[in-house]
């Protein structure tokens, strides 16, 4: 990404325009206390619970939250009925929210459309669409540097909050990093964190600045970046009391921080017969496998499907000129090596036995021991 900065230099009444090109790219991450992420966590808790009891369950579970009201809605066909109330309150408790007994939970659930089931039950894709996977060798996670920085910083913030029982900072937070790829340095590090009303802005900034510096230093990056902490000066009201939340509204924070394409379909709340989820995981694995094997330094894979059809209608590979082998040969190796049918993906990645609670916050990629990351 190229950010163009124009400025004017005036000398002797002559206007001279100079153009400076900075290779700045920004990525964002949100905490598990963000209202959209609360909904993602509830949706994936439902998916995990149903598949644990009924591997054949079909799940499209969405959630919305505002203040103390939670609505679970969607289409579910399963022999197992989850305890929605308990699942929701467990998520809220894990996030670090208070007054759990005040939340009211409503369910608006119907069964999966028989028209969709007709195709899925014969091993076809659960929907049409395109899914993308991406990998880059710039970090050990094979994810973009600014995305990794944003994610790690919020994970450190989460650890701080747990250690201090959320007495200083609160669960809702966002991080954003602008990275200069030309100079290989962090340009701006931004974190906005909810905090207790009794805590001063200077205290908040001291805590968060330390987290920023530690995160950068651990990645052997510069620590003399521009620091922005709670730019408005106050962030007391947070989570569902400041914004409404909805499942599937943080798809870029879930994936690659904007460094790669996205098909548009969310992951959370969907069983793996939905290729929005399963094919995106397989596309990531393919891209990561190619980078790990040293065949390319950077890779993006697109898979596209038609509802009810097992084989993908297209497979696309882009190495951005960083390949170390012929791209056509790499593409053919992908076609030959990987079973890209929904049934094959589910089996090879063991997606019916995955704990989706592990990916419902702080990203679906870059975490150890997930089948698509191995």
UniProtKB/TrEMBL annotation:
The keyword Nucleotide-binding applies. Pathway: Amino-acid biosynthesis; S-adenosyl-L-methionine biosynthesis; S-adenosyl-L-methionine from L-methionine: step 1/1. Its main location: cytoplasm. Its EC number is 2.5.1.6. InterPro entries: ADOMET_SYNTHASE_CS (IPR022631), S-AdoMet_synt_C (IPR022630), S-AdoMet_synt_central (IPR022629), S-AdoMet_synt_N (IPR022628), S-AdoMet_synthetase (IPR002133), S-AdoMet_synthetase_sfam (IPR022636). The keyword Transferase applies. One of its GO terms (cellular component) is cytoplasm. This is Methionine adenosyltransferase. Keywords: ATP-binding, Magnesium, Metal-binding, Nucleotide-binding, One-carbon metabolism, Potassium, Transferase. It comes from the Bacteria. It comes from Oribacterium sinus F0268. One of its GO terms (biological process) is one-carbon metabolic process. Pfam families: S-AdoMet_synt_C (PF02773), S-AdoMet_synt_M (PF02772), S-AdoMet_synt_N (PF00438). Belongs to the AdoMet synthase family. It is found in: Cytoplasm.
């Amino acid at each position: 990404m190229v950010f163009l900065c124009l400025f004017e230099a005036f000398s002797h009444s002559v206007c001279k325009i100079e153009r400076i090109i900075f290779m700045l790219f920004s990525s964002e991450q949100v905490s598990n206390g963000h209202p959209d992420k609360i909904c993602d966590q509830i949706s994936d808790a439902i998916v995990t619970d149903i598949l644990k009891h009924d591997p054949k369950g079909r799940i499209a579970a969405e959630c919305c939250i505002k203040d103390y009201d939670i609505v679970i809605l969607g289409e579910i066909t399963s022999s197992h009925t989850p305890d929605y109330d308990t699942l929701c309150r467990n998520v809220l408790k894990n996030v670090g929210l208070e007054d759990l007994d005040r939340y009211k939970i409503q369910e608006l659930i119907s069964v999966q459309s028989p028209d969709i089931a007709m195709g899925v039950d014969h091993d076809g894709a659960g929907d049409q669409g395109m899914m993308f996977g991406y990998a880059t060798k710039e970090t050990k996670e094979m994810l973009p540097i600014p995305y990794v920085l944003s994610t790690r910083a919020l994970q450190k913030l989460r650890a701080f909050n747990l250690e201090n029982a959320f007495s200083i900072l609160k669960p809702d937070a966002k991080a954003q990093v602008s990275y200069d790829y030309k100079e290989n340095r962090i340009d701006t590090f931004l974190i906005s964190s909810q905090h207790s009303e009794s805590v001063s802005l200077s205290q908040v900034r001291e805590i968060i600045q330390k987290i920023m510096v530690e995160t950068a230093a651990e990645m052997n990056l510069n620590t003399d970046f521009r620091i922005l902490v709670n730019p408005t000066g106050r962030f007391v009201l947070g989570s569902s009391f400041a914004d409404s939340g909805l499942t599937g509204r943080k798809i870029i924070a879930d994936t690659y921080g904007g460094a790669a394409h996205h098909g548009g379909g969310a992951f959370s709340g969907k069983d793996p017969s939905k290729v929005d989820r399963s094919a995106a995981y397989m596309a990531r694995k393919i891209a990561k496998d190619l980078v790990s094997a040293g065949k390319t330094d950077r890779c993006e894979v697109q898979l596209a499907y038609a509802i009810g059809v097992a084989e993908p209608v297209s497979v696309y590979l882009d190495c951005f000129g960083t390949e170390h082998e012929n791209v056509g040969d790499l593409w053919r190796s992908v076609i030959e090596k990987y079973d890209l049918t929904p049934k094959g993906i589910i089996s090879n990645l063991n997606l019916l036995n995955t704990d989706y609670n592990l990916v419902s916050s702080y990203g679906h990629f870059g975490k150890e021991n997930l089948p698509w990351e191995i």
